[in-house]
Queue: 3 jobs
Job 1
Amino acid sequence: MEKETLISVNQLSRFYGQQRAIENVSFDVYRGEILGFLGPNGAGKSTTMQIISGILAANHGSVKIAGHDIYDEPKAAKQHIGFLSEQPPLYTDLTVDEYLIYSGKLRGITKAELNDAVKISKQRCGLEKSGSRLINNLSKGYKQRLGIAQAIIHSPSVIILDEPTSGLDPIQIHEIRDLMKELAEVHSVILSTHILSEVQSLCDRVLIINHGNIVLDQLLQQLQGNQKIESIVIGLKYPPKLDDLLTIDGVIGAESVGETLLKLCFAEGVDATDAIVNKAAQESWGLYSLSQDDSSLESVFMKLTYGEELTQTEEGSME
Amino acid sequence: MKPVLLIAGNELRQMFKSPLAWVILAVVQFLLAMFFYLLLSQYMHPAAGSLGLTDSVVNGMYQIAGIVMLLVSPLMTMRLLTEERRQGTIKLLFSSPITMTEIILGKYLGILSFYALMLVMITLMPASLLFGTTLDIGQIAAALIGLFLLMAAFAAIGLFISTVTNQPATAAIATFGVLFVLWIINAAGTNAAEGMAAVFAYLSLLTHYNNLLGGAFNSTDVIFYCLVSVFFIVLSIWKLDAERTHG
């Protein structure tokens, strides 16, 4: 089945004065996809998202939302966009209901559908009981939920969320993740975040941006599939000497990463997990935990962003 | 048109949710009531050759109303767009299917509606005189139109300045400065050559207001205020549009 392209970003560049924010950014997002947008601070994540939503204009390039160009047909294109900025765009003097009704109307929801739309989006974001509360009195997490509620109220095909889970407690984060998965079944979602695990548990595709350029655009499956298991972390109640661990076939490195946690590196192309477990049982080391050193995304992220920065600062200090 | 009304409605609601609008309505009403009373008691003890009721009391009050509005209008317009920016709600507007023109017109219509309400409340005072005497309704109508046009020009200038800065206080002070200069600019012409004096007098918001207060409904004066308002509204729209490209 041909996938439907909902967002098509083509050769975007944007400058703030002389400073380049993003350059030649191109990517597509398909229906039913959750795209994770990663990058260090100031990499151009927010700029890109704001250009896609029509808040900023690009110096070069084009953005198409569901087939409508955001500059040539802004009204038609923006009908399909739900945007949550980093700071939720809330009128603090209004109540939750008043605010949602207003933002619904702004997005062109008809009177007949408005009540249902408000009800559904409140329900989805867990705001059923807060309808008559003043926004000013809401906690940060609830403000964030309301920000998401206004972004999905008109059930847009494209939902753009700039750090949607910041300020939420773990349970709320979990709920919001479920909500996003649910939304992505019929819409497409772009979200930016600093939290790598969030991308891992939620997104279909990862986009890493650094210094205004896209440095990685890959399906998460591929990214994890490519990564060979190179090491595991085990927890032993009665850890032996590190040298003893090296006697296990296929283990070429061992280091202590905590009081009873050990990181074991495998020889290339060898998965020595079974051997380690057998040995631990034989010798009664008290194996209580075993986990893959799951840092594939993190290591890619570090390599692509901070790795470059490190070499740059070294160069800088040379000058 | 619908988004314009929507934004105007929200603007009004925001105003009345904050104490500022109520306080301004109350203070303006109180100040003008005081002047109204003073003018009226002066009229009750006439000196030789004094003016009629409409000219002295009603016009006197509208004259002062113009000055009070000069002071108050910057406070009402200062938060029109600065507040949207500070709260980040401008992003909600920008990412919604509405145009810059609709945003600006909505804001303008919102503040104009508030001013219209204020005008009605002010006018209740001279209207109360109708119970006891007759007034020159035509002259009062001209004065009313004059004051409304004056406030409309104040609002347009204030709206534009609120698009330029992020700080409400800065917007208020800057607006006050601009309004004040435009108010007294005819004074700059007193020592200038005749041609320049006419230009300064034409630019003054006060000269045109005085014409209308006198009951002379001159289309030049009306067009002047309309031009000022339209000019600053167009500038506001341009500024908002430019913000996306350069901001």
Job 2
Amino acid sequence: MWLKYIIISFFLSGISDTTWKMAGEVAPSSVNSYLFIFHIFALLSAMVAFFITKRRIKKDELFLGMVIGFSLIAGGIFSLKAIILLPGIVFFPISSCASLLLVTMFASMIWKEKPTIRQAIGLIIACISIILIAI
Amino acid sequence: MTYLFLSVIFYTIAALAYKHANQVGCDRISLIFSERIAAVFLMLFYLFLFDTFRPSAQVTLLAFVGGITIFLSRLTLLISLKYGKISSSWTAVNLSVIVPVIASIFFWKEKPDAKQTIGLILVPLAIFLLQEDKSK
């Protein structure tokens, strides 16, 4: 089941990344405008799903959702600033692998989610592949 | 380096908050709805302070496709957390950076160099290795 959902998420996220790249190609000066409209459409999609399924937001969901939303946007903005100032050979390996390693480390400390040896090899290969593609 | 450090910290916070939300049984759609409200407000603030709003038909159409697909991607990512570890799911979704590279090869006839080709070949292997052990 994990593989099925993660492959769907992987491709959908990839399509989304591709539209960002396409926006950068067709209108480089409008990339921030693209991002703003992109977030509005993502919000509208969530809003439609939210109202159709007649849900109510609890305090926890509102707080965690806000934390995630702010973190993703702030991460993206700082990432854009960093890539302007740092050489790619420094930026890509650190940005690609540091977050993956930190998430693994904290998940292991907080929820005792220790990756198996096979998964640890998968993590290392994932880091290597991102670096090879990005540099 | 400070910007890079902050970027890594914020992405890590987002991933851990997804996991925590899943652990405490948050409703997925409500969570993404709140997440997107925060994203729109912060992006609006950023655009207002540092850029000007320059929409066009092409950009709007691309944003429409991108917005819907990222919503569905987040939803399936949250579902995947029910069956696997956050470290595996977050890594696998981060590997989606290869999709624009593959699109560039097919649509813009960009030729990947040897390093990129090896990187692209390694991605399916990484996802295969990251999956949960079925015997557990």
Job 3
Amino acid sequence: MSRAIYWISLSAGFLFLVLPLLVVLPLAFNDSSFLNYPMEGFTWRWFGVVFHQPPWMAALMNSLKVASGAMVAGVLIGGLAAVGTMLAGRWGRLVLSALFISPIVIPSVVLGVAMAYAFGRMGVSGGYLPLVLAHAILGAPLVFLSVMTSLRGLDPELERAAASMGASRWHRFRTVTLPLAAPGFLTGALFAFITSFDEVVVALFLASPQSQTLPIALFSSLRDRLEPPIVVVALLLSLVSCLFIVVLNRLQKRSNGRR
Amino acid sequence: MASLEIRSIDKFYGQTQALFDVSLSIGKGEFVTLLGPSGSGKTTLLKILAGFEGVSSGTITLDGRDITTLLPETRNFGLVFQGYALFPHMSVRDNIAYPLKVRRVAKGEIDARVRAMLDLVQLARFIDRKPSELSGGQQQRVALARALVFKPDLLLLDEPMSALDKKLRVDLQQELRAIHQTLGTTFINVTHDQEEAMHMSDRIAVMNHGRIEQFDSAFTLYRRPQSRFVADFVGKSNIFTGELVPGSAGLTFRGEGLAVPLGPADRAPGKVDLMLRPEDIAIETDPPGPGRIALPARVLQATYSGDRALYALKLDAGPEISAWGTARSGIHPEGAAVLACFAPQDCTLIG
């Protein structure tokens, strides 16, 4: 009985979640300019198109720049918020946590409109800065959450031990808390990066033609013409995400091994 | 010469009082254990000494200097935790060097002192290991080295052995005692294990419900407990409730079917408890000589442990008691009729 449940749930999950994604990917190698089965032959041609024809490489570079910037800003903001929140009392912690996580709850369309309007008013529309800032706001709560998890998992006696040996609050933070919470910061940084890298809604509102990111390029070429390069880009993005999951897994194993 | 003076400490958590008028005077170089069941306040007292908790009233002085409100990092007390609290991201060397680096000791001296401490706890081979690569006993010895390397004025040990198995515990007790004698630092240990307390300490403060019941050497606690709680908590004991009644030959204890002539005693008649340790009772089948008291009893249970046997006896007069008996020529079976014999001078009056 339990075996039947196991196989049914497994195949249902596979059919529903994974198959629709996998079915598209072989078309990246299809020797036809239509996204249609049956495939007409195998080719690497579309990869060449992606690597050499606009807008793909320029968009990729934009995405990398924006995601890196958003990651750095997100780690700083989210990390500091988490450290500060840990120092607060029980109720303070609850309230501050809710506040710092709130950007996740607000629909990204609303955020996009609000930020486009706000940045326009301030005269910083166009270019990378608005995108980086907006994506930092989206990434910071993720950093906040993962750093909080990391800090909460620390044995409070370590801090006390350091205190009993004469270390000041700042010294304890620098030599004990921060190094031990590093996996949390790294996980958060990865999340912030990938969030920005995949983000399309807010970017649509804020990107100028020069700062167009990869998801936007994907989105607009989907509207213009359905061609295999889109699938190539999708395949590449999926590979990046898989890599990300592997790295995350490694990180978690390492921090678990320490305890 | 008292070095650490704890004077009338009260501690409240909201409405609950955790410590009641606790006073202790601990000499320099003494090995003192705070012994008590969980909830007795011993850990609270240790946290207050370490500076992690404040007091509601009372003072603590060290060599005449008031340290009641000092922060933990300015007290210069070593601290050993139940869970070791070694820094997992640092090697054994860096763990032990930590307090010295905080104090900006010169590099060469740090190295020398770390090595000297590791020699003392016999872990020199493990200097470059990470804590996770050491056993529990080794980790606790590293923690000990780390807490002692900066020559603290006081070493506080918070149930340091409770995570270790029995054999390791006994080894570490001896080692701790030896280190204490080598260094001459004042040690204050917290435990609920009365054997551990008796093995290591110069004096033991028995705590119960936030109060100090008695502060004495292990011998005095065991032979002359001042309260029923101490008699019960430290070692096995049989306690009879009754009263002292005056007679022609001095006072006699009467209660629970027992009559023990105590001779002329320097105390007033009235209600009292009488304690009798299981090893002071001999189990006989023939009536004993004069001066000893024999109580007829039946064996409820006998637990053989090779060198001797622990008997649970039901006295014909009612109460159940426990007694150690010799086991050289076998043990008395369950239900056997025996005599529980003891001398009146081995009894202790409590209260």
